[in-house]
């Protein structure tokens, strides 16, 4: 793929004129919340240094203070090239900042954003000048369980499976020069049946420019070989078009065998390059590099189909935590290492749990053929405020990551977190239905799971969580009592019903989307699910026993093992926090990939 630029934060919408603003920033705690009153944005009073994008709680930040500080400030100097400002706007991006982010430039207020997991962008063109400029950021956070938190604790100490809070900037900060006449976004939807790609352009230009002289050209290629191109007049801000991507020349093995296109799948993750050019009166205004894949994910009765073929999903739960940097990846290489090691363990996908990962991670999942379930960070209290915050940020995330082919499932809710009375309370049921249909209104392709593991309402896949440690017991539960579980006469695990009151099974695919969680570590203070094992032999025996039991369930079309690596007090990973394997990966891989019955021929 030719659009790859190392560390570029937005790999599906690449411009060359950008600057990474990570590194050493001035920093200060403002526990009394006096910074705005004292105008720290004019005269910064912080007395510390921090390494952005690592939060102050982490070792890599240079501070490593795990205590609660609800008001924090950042400051640095940015340099702007005045010559570039004649035909460009200067945009400031935060890939992730938790929770309320306020920005000042040269003492003037630039704007704010609420939410911790979606990208934030500020147009600060009118506030910057040629040369050095002062950038000041205040971030406000709290232990409020109404806001989307994911696995961040909301009390002073870690407990259960909740960990040290993440406060402030925790993903890359960067800037770019964006032409005055430009593309704001492109939504790309593959139509495999018709060998076509649907494009939805959003144009950013003055109204008087939107005429026959403004043209968008898209050029598609595969491994450097041109496939097709199309030019379309941009006489309005929103434009839809379709491009046929079938190629009759025959490129490589498997080309044109079914649809005349190369499809994306874990075994062969073929990606097309697509370049966008915006011209006005035949003069180039904006150029963007991107990529897409031709792949189809859909539900067919009890089956999940990828490109028309049954897909058996061997997933692993991935919380994306690191010892010295917590939620923030320590490097791009660390992201690649995780994906490669997950593949080495015999998994074809992962469930990114309670976190929206760095988009570089999704890029590498696209490149390496790793299936991804994208799961929203949960709130833990149901209120009108929680509904509003969750809905706004969830749709920002869906829009931001829509084009990544690796994402095959949206999972907005998990285990009734934030909707604790969903089994009986209609208002909470209606909220989950609203999120389901809102997600489907934006994305017609992907399945949406509503309330993964526990009381489902409307859901394209029925998912069950079960940490039973004896394989025979697990197998009998889901073979002898299948109908009772799906009709809620018998609860599956954790004394939870498969459906909320008033909802019923309608023939959807079924996946055991959490199981295992075997604690295996020399740390006696940590925990896992069930009894801890003390030797490698005991771990392998139990892992094989329960994994084989799940695979034998005839109607189950996938599983998700808990989990990739240890996370703080939770020691049930297949790797420790330094990403060292606890058991040789080839042993785990053989168990995971061992075929059992007809279904497994599609693994």
UniProtKB/TrEMBL annotation:
Superkingdom of the source species: Bacteria
Keyword Cytoplasm set for record: no
MF GO annotations: hydrolase activity, hydrolyzing O-glycosyl compounds
Domain Glycoside hydrolase family 2 catalytic intervals: 299-521
UniProt entry tagged with the keyword Hydrolase: yes
One Pfam family linked to the record: Glyco_hydro_2_C
Residues covered by the Glycosyl hydrolases family 2 sugar binding domain: 19-139
GO biological process per UniProt: carbohydrate metabolic process
The entry's keywords: Hydrolase
Family recorded in the similarity comment: Belongs to the glycosyl hydrolase 2 family.
PANTHER family, per the entry: BETA-GALACTOSIDASE, HYDROLASE
The protein, known as: Glycoside hydrolase family 2
Source organism (scientific name): Blautia faecicola
């Amino acid at each position: 793929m030719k659009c790859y630029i190392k560390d570029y934060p937005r790999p599906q919408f690449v411009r060359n004129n950008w600057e990474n603003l990570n590194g050493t920033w001035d920093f200060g705690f403002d526990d009394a919340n006096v910074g705005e009153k004292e105008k720290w944005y004019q005269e910064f009073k912080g007395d510390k240094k921090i390494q952005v994008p690592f939060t102050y709680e982490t070792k890599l930040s240079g501070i490593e203070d795990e205590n609660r500080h609800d008001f924090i400030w950042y400051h640095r100097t940015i340099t702007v090239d005045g010559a570039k400002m004649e035909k460009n706007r200067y945009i400031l991006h935060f890939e992730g900042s938790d929770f309320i982010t306020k920005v000042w430039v040269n003492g003037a207020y630039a704007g704010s954003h609420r939410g911790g997991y979606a990208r934030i962008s500020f147009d600060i063109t009118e506030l910057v000048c040629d040369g050095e400029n002062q950038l000041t950021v205040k971030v406000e956070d709290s232990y409020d369980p109404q806001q989307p938190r994911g696995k961040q604790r909301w009390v002073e100490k870690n407990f259960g499976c909740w960990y040290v809070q993440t406060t402030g900037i925790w993903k890359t900060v960067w800037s770019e020069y964006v032409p005055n006449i430009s593309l704001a976004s492109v939504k790309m939807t593959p139509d495999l049946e018709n060998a076509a790609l649907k494009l939805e352009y959003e144009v950013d230009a003055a109204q008087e420019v939107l005429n026959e002289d403004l043209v968008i050209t898209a050029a598609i290629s595969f491994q450097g070989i041109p496939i097709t191109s199309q030019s379309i007049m941009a006489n309005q801000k929103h434009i839809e078009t379709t491009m046929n991507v079938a190629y009759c020349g025959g490129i490589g093995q498997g080309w044109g065998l079914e649809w005349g296109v190369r499809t994306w799948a874990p075994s062969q993750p073929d990606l097309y390059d697509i370049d966008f050019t915006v011209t006005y009166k035949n003069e180039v205004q904006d150029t963007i590099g991107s990529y897409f894949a031709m792949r189809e994910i859909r539900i067919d009765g009890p089956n999940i189909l990828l490109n028309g073929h049954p897909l058996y999903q061997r997933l692993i739960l991935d919380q994306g935590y690191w010892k010295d940097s917590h939620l923030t990846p320590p490097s791009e290489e660390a992201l690649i290492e995780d994906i490669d090691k997950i593949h080495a363990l015999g998994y074809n996908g992962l469930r990114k749990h309670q976190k929206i990962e760095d988009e570089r991670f999704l890029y590498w999942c696209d490149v390496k053929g790793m299936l991804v379930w994208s799961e929203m960070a949960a709130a833990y209290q149901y209120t009108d405020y929680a509904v509003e915050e969750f809905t706004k940020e969830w749709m920002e995330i869906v829009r931001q990551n829509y084009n990544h082919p690796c994402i095959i499932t949206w999972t907005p809710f998990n285990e009734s977190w934030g909707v604790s009375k969903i089994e009986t309370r209609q208002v909470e049921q209606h909220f989950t239905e609203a999120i389901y249909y809102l997600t489907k209104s934006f994305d017609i392709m992907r399945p949406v799971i509503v309330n993964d593991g526990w009381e489902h309402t409307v859901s394209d896949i029925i998912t069950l969580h079960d940490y039973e440690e004896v394989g025979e017991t697990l197998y009998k539960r889901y073979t002898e009592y299948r109908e009772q579980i799906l009709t809620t006469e018998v609860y599956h695990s954790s004394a939870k019903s498969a459906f909320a009151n008033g909802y019923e099974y309608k023939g959807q695919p079924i996946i055991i989307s959490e199981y295992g969680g075997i604690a295996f570590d020399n740390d006696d203070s940590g925990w896992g699910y069930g009894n801890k094992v003390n030797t490698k032999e005991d771990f392998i025996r139990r892992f094989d026993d329960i994994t084989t039991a799940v695979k034998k369930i005839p109607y189950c079309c996938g599983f998700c093992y808990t989990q990739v690596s240890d996370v703080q007090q939770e020691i049930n990973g297949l790797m420790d926090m330094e990403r060292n394997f606890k058991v040789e990966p080839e042993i785990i891989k053989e168990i995971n990939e061992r075929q059992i019955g007809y279904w497994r021929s599609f693994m």
